Amino acid sequence: MKKFLFIFLSFFELFCSKESCIKREEFTDIYADILIISANTTISNTQRKFKIDSLLKARGYSEQMFECTVKTFSENPEEWKDIYKEVLDKLEMKKLKK
Q1: What's the pLDDT score for residue 22?
Q2: CB–CB of 28/84 below 8 Å?
Q3: Closest CA to 67 of 4, 32, 21, 33
Q4: Distance between CA atoms of 93 and 86, rounded to whole angstroms?
Q5: Positive or negative CA dihedral for 59, 60, 65, 67?
Q6: CA 5, CA 64: separation in Å to the nearest integer?
Q7: 8 Å CB contact between 58 and 34
Q8: Cα gap 51→88, rounded to integer Å
Q9: Given 7, 14, 47, 69, which residue has the most CB atoms within 10 angstroms?
């Protein structure tokens, strides 16, 4: 099992590079939308996953690219903190537009 995990993580590292990441501004838009979808308690987990996958696909990204971007940004806590603040600002703006 440990060997499998090592191989999987090595494979993930190989394909998770800066070039395969979503650009910061686009990422913050997507992440804000994903948080809105995730907060919807009236839909099932299956529906939630479908909506998130559809959102990523509509923007030209895959779940793997999103996860890779989260991993890359979260390796720098100060940058992640700034990104999260941007996401909260975007959520606040969306709330005011309603």
Answers
A1: 93
A2: no
A3: 21
A4: 11
A5: positive
A6: 17
A7: no
A8: 20
A9: 69
Taking residue 4's Cβ as centre, other Cβ atoms within 10 Å add up to 8
Q: How far apart are CA 15 and CA 11, in angstroms?
A: 7
Q: What is the DSSP letter of 16?
A: -
User: Do residues 91 and 36 touch, judged by C-beta distance below 8 A?
Assistant: yes
Query: What does pLDDT average to in each consecutive run of 10 residues of the chain (98 residues)?
Result: 42 56 94 93 93 96 92 91 95 85
Query: To which residue do tokens 């999103």 refer?
Result: 66
Task: Report the length, in residues, of the chain.
Answer: 98
Helices (H), 1-98: 2-15, 24-39, 45-58, 63-74, 77-97
User: How far apart (Å, rounded) are the C-alpha atoms in residues 47 and 70?
Assistant: 22
Q: Which DSSP state fits 22?
A: P
Map out the domains of the chain as residue ranges.
18-97
Token pair of 98 as six digits: 């309603």
